[in-house]
Amino acid sequence: MSPGDLKALVRSVPDFPAPGVLFRDVTTLIAHPAGFAAAIDHLAARVRASGATLIAGMEARGFIFGAAAAARAGLGFVPVRKPGKLPVTTLGVDYDLEYGTDRLEIDPTAIRPGQSVAIVDDLIATGGTALAAAHLLREASAVVTHAFFVIDLPDLGGAQRLRDAGVTVDALMDFPGH
């Protein structure tokens, strides 16, 4: 299936989570066996071509796409977690959201110094979470030069924010608006 075919499997939900927002829901893509497999094939091929030796995915849908792409590409996977979820001493970063702050944590022993790590997530919107993940991975001595997404919402500027931070961004599809 082409990325265009996959785009047709993404459900659009109007007025969620707030009036005027058109939410792009990957649940329908994940539930479609051939579509999900094709999305993972596309992501894995792009990650392999980037030269990354490890994939990092952010909680929660980044776990779905990132871990599956890592398995398909023959690479390891490191979860970028919400606070308090890892049973070891973690490395963490606080970051700003539109209405508040959040925190991400990783097990720094899961990454070898200088290891090339690609970020994989379901969607890039404003880029706050992906930027925080890139910062955190770099703090753990990873080399982060690529991030891969199923969906880009280019009008929200997140992909450009990542590019400005030295990360090449690639998405299987994009949707105008928010």
TrEMBL record:
Keywords: Cytoplasm, Glycosyltransferase, Purine salvage, Transferase. This is Adenine phosphoribosyltransferase. Catalyzes a salvage reaction resulting in the formation of AMP, that is energically less costly than de novo synthesis. Residues 35-147 form the Phosphoribosyltransferase domain. Homodimer. It comes from the Bacteria. It is found in: Cytoplasm. Pathway: Purine metabolism; AMP biosynthesis via salvage pathway; AMP from adenine: step 1/1. Gene3D superfamilies: 3.40.50.2020. It catalyses: AMP + diphosphate = 5-phospho-alpha-D-ribose 1-diphosphate + adenine. HAMAP family: Aden_phosphoribosyltr (MF_00004). One of its GO terms (molecular function) is adenine phosphoribosyltransferase activity. Its EC number is 2.4.2.7. The keyword Glycosyltransferase applies. The gene is apt. Coiled coil: none annotated. Belongs to the purine/pyrimidine phosphoribosyltransferase family. NCBIfam families: apt, PRK02304.1-3, PRK02304.1-5. Pfam families: Pribosyltran.
